[in-house]
Specification:
117 residues, mainly alpha, 4 helices
Length: 117
Amino acid sequence: MGIRTEEQKRKHREYMRKYNSIPKNKIKKELLDKKYKINNRAKIAVLANKHYNKKKKEYYARMTARKKIVIPLGEKCELCKINLAKERHHPDYDQPLEIMFLCVKCHAELHSKWKKK
């Protein structure tokens, strides 16, 4: 199979989403996933550990903020100042206690802007 264009990738994802939503195919996929996990435990453990080590600072910052900083009731989003803040955002993971309180919409937009860069 050759290199796929973005349009081909999008169509394939859409097809697979529909295919995997059919109950009998969902069961088949779950069985294949389970079988893969059993046969590739070591490989999965290495990848999970690699991912953890790469994101260790982010995990630590999130856990610290969750334990020590409660989102105040009635707190407004720091960006739009309209919706209630329901999520925490770390502009810098080196400072885990410096966070922004954001609504779901603004937080998603903020991250989607970063992904596009």
